[in-house]
Structure formats: structure tokens, C-alpha cells
Amino acid sequence: xxxxxxxxxxxxxxxxxxxxxxxxxxxxxxxxxxxxxxxxxxxxxxxxxxxxxxxxxxxxxxxxxxxxxxxxxxxxxxxxxxxxxxxxxxxxxxxxxxxxxxxxxxxxxxxxxxxxxxxxxxxxxxxxxxxxxxxxxxxxxxxxxxxxxxxxxxxxxxxxxxxxxxxxxxxxxxxxxxxxxxxxxxxxxxxxxxxxxxxxxxxxxxxxxxxxxxxxxxxxxxxxxxxxxxxxxxxxxxxxxxxxxxxxxxxxxxxxxxxxxxxxxxxxxxxxxxxxxxxxxxxxxxxxxxxxxxxxxxxxxxxxxxxxxxxxxxxxxxxxxxxxxxxxxxxxxxxxxxxxxxxxxxxxxxxxxxxxxxxxxxxxxxxxxxxxxxxxxxxxxxxxxxxxxxxxxxxxxxxxxxxxxxxxxxxxxxxxxxxxxxxxxxxxxxxxxxx
Length: 435
Prior knowledge:
It is a single chain. It contains 19 helices and no strands. It has helices at 2-30, 40-52, 61-90, 101-131, 143-177, 186-192, 200-224, 232-242, 255-265, 272-276, 292-300, 306-310, 312-315, 322-343, 353-356, 360-365, 371-375, 382-397, 402-414.
């Protein structure tokens, strides 16, 4: 009974802290722009293909396979974690064991995945600490980002160690006491063979230590994740579901532009609400100008650097890093969000996403090739944010590179990007004997 009370107390604290953190994110989403979703059947397919099957990850076969093993392994181990929570609350033991063969299969898979995930986390740690993979570095990758990744991988490794320890000592305890062993433990049974010299009391203590260690690590990890880049553990699957379904190169018409053109062509359609509405803002200059999917993209960013590694602008030495764009959006909302919660969406701290975080040089370096969006394993659409910030520069600030300004002038004067009047456009063909 005391164990139950301690467990329930720890669970309540965990859920309360987690709810407080997620409440903050919920409020931040309220300050973003609306965006309607459609084509849900396509979204379900995309989620199964990209998020569950991990198809984009396999573009880098070896590391992709290990990452997929970690993802799928956690999906299996989640079953056991839910069982632990139920057992902890009600004082039961192996509450799902009545499912028979299915239970044995899941427990055996989790036991094997425990070793695979522990091995993968060590490989990932070794790569980060000793191999100096180029995409893990960059001006945006501060020491805190590197420490964040190492901490999360250490958490994962310890979770697997305590899982295997818990299973091993459960197996030993049941074996020595002559009780029925519930579940199938191929790895833990092998490990138990090396520990038969332990006394029943030692086995019991070690089982309890690993059980509590595992569940408390889960509770701690759940509340560390929202403050970490590994928040994508929660956000990546829903982010893929809400991600762009249209071709990446398709440019969406701005809602504010569409409304203005509609009213110009049909003034009688204007309502009192339209007349009294505030002057529309074209494009994005700050985090709260983004739509909610853009913000979810930022929260889902794993900082893996795959986007920056394929960016032609970054490869050729330009300032642009698609990863930095997403990190800046996240950081800016974190900075401005508390003020908006307190004072409303009109809150201003004298800073903005454009200028204080992202420079014009970065934005205009983008070639709009969409390589970053194509490569992202969780379907983040970085060019959409870059495009909207460019729109703000052009439409609100009349700020664009000189070459583009020439094009704009020609379109205004000649109806085409070229500096010729419409009547002179075919003069180049006069001497080519073309009728």
C-alpha cells in the first residue's frame, strides 16, 4: 500500500508539471494564425508512410535503420510502460498478462528492443562525441544544443538498462521462488544466467531498484522533453499529419491578398465587419504572424541538420541555414510568448523574429529549391516561413535585392520581367527570317 501511495504521488506530480508545461504551449498556439486542414485520408497515409514507417529516415541507411529501430522499439516498450503505470496505481502485477500469446510476443519484442535501443543510443553518443559529423555543427548549434542531445541519449540508455535489469531480476525472482514466469524474456533470461549466485533478498532489492529507476526515469524524461529538442518525441507524428500535402513548389495565395483583391473586384461584397477590420498585414515579421502549423513545425524540429546539409545556399557559404530558421522561430515564441499570455497579442518587447533573429541576407539566400523540406524526416516546411518573411519585406517594407526591384518595375511598366515595351518584344526575330 505504501508503494502505491508513493507511486500515485509521483504520478500526480509528473502529470501536474507536464500539464503546466503543455498549457503554456497551448496558449502560444492561440496567438498564431488559423489554418484549416483538409484531405484527411491523404494525411493518414502520409503519417503511416513518413512517421510510422520512417521512410525518409532510410535515406541514410545505417543511421536511419538504427533510428527506426529506436522509434519502433519505443512503440513496443510503451505497452509495458502503460502496464507499469496501471500496476503502480492498483497494486497489481503484470495486469495485461491475461492476453496470453500477444502478451508474450510484446514482452519478448520489448526485451530484444531494449538491447537494440541501448546499442543504438551508444552509437549515436559516440558519433556526437568523437566523429564530429559536419551536420551536427553550425553557428546555431550552441553548447547547450549539444548537451541537450547527449543528455537525451543518456536518458534513453539508462531507460533501457533499467528495463533489462527489471526484467532480468523479475525472471530470477520468479525462478528462485518457484512462481510462474509471466511473459517471455529471451535477453533477460540469458542475462539471468550470469546472476544465479545472488540471494533472493538481493534479487528482490535489485528488481525494486530497477522498477523504480525505470518508472522515475520515464516520469523525469516526460517533463524534460518539452524543454528539449527531443520534444519531437511527442510532436513528430502529429506534425507529419498536419504537414503540407500539396506539391512543395506550389505557392499559396496569401489570405490577406485574396481578401483585398476580392473587395476591389466586388466592392458591394464588403460588410461592416470588413470595413471596420484592422488593416491587414502582409507576410510575417514575428512569430505570432505565423500560422499554427508553422509553429508546430518549429516545435517538431529535431535539429538533426539534414535540411542544412542539403541546402545549396549553405553548402556554397551563404548565411542561410534552414535548421536555424526553425530554431529561431521556436526561440522567438519562447521569448515573446509569456508577454502575450500576460498582456495579449498586442504585446511588444521591441524585438521581432525578422531582424533580431533572422536577417534579410539569410532570407534572400534561399533558392526556394525545397531540398530542405524534401529531406526533413518529420515533414517540416522551412521555405513556407522564408517565403512569408520575404513577402513582408517586399509588401510592407519595399525591401528587396536590386535585381528583384528591377523585375518589379518592369512588370509594373511593361507587363513582363523584361525591360522592353510589349511592341518591341519580337524585334529580336526580325533578321531571323521568321514569318
